[in-house]
């Protein structure tokens, strides 16, 4: 009895254009065609270029998934979720010396409130006054307050207040797409 070799080679036939595409660093086919026509590279034979997908090129051009355009959660009633953010400093400041714009948006109605502030540190006190006023007027209470972790909402007193009121829903730091409204 002889030795039986069960090893087999799995060969796939590659076209000449695919081979040269790989040899030249995965160059695009238009550039390869130009090289052939103008004889810019010695040794490239004349061949028909086949437009095939190159697995290596596809893997090399991977990118992360696009961010969702809409939030997966939308509040079903007013004040269920309020988004807050601070814009500024704006220059020049207003005649009254305000340099920041505080924006609050109700997720359900998309109603927007704005307030002008002289300093970033004024934002949290303005939010407390806003919360009191809007809850008194509407008869409903703010259930969740979503921010971007800006310093104006991260002081010990503001974090304590938000936690005690059960309002906290802070977006992930430095990931702006995680807060889709404000």
UniProtKB/TrEMBL annotation:
Q: Which domain of life is it from?
A: Eukaryota
**Which InterPro entries does the record cross-reference, listed alphabetically?**
GAG-pre-integrase_dom (IPR025724), Integrase_cat-core (IPR001584), Retrotran_Ty1/copia-like (IPR039537), RNaseH-like_sf (IPR012337), RNaseH_sf (IPR036397)
Look up the record and give one Gene Ontology term from the biological process aspect. Answer: DNA integration
Q: Where is the Integrase catalytic domain?
A: 64-182
GO molecular function per UniProt: nucleic acid binding
PANTHER family for this protein: RNA-DIRECTED DNA POLYMERASE, TRANSPOSASE, PUTATIVE-RELATED
Q: What is this protein called?
A: Integrase catalytic domain-containing protein
Name its species: Microthlaspi erraticum
Q: What is the lineage of its organism?
A: Eukaryota, Viridiplantae, Streptophyta, Embryophyta, Tracheophyta
């Amino acid at each position: 009895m002889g030795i039986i070799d069960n090893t087999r080679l799995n060969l796939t036939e590659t076209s000449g254009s695919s081979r040269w595409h790989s040899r030249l660093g995965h160059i695009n086919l238009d550039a390869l065609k130009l090289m052939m026509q103008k004889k810019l590279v010695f040794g490239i034979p004349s061949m028909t270029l086949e437009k095939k997908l190159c697995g290596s090129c596809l893997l090399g051009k991977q990118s992360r998934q696009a961010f969702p355009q809409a939030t997966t959660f939308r509040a079903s009633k007013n004040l269920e979720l309020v988004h807050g953010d601070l814009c500024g400093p704006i220059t020049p400041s207003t005649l009254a010396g305000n340099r920041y714009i505080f924006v609050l948006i109700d997720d359900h109605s998309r109603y927007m409130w704005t307030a002008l502030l002289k300093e970033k540190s004024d934002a949290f006190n303005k939010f407390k006054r806003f919360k009191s006023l809007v809850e008194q007027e509407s008869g409903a209470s703010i259930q969740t307050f979503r921010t971007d972790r800006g310093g104006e909402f991260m002081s010990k007193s503001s974090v304590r207040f938000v936690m005690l009121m059960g309002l906290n829903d802070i977006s992930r730091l430095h990931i702006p797409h995680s807060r889709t409204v404000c």
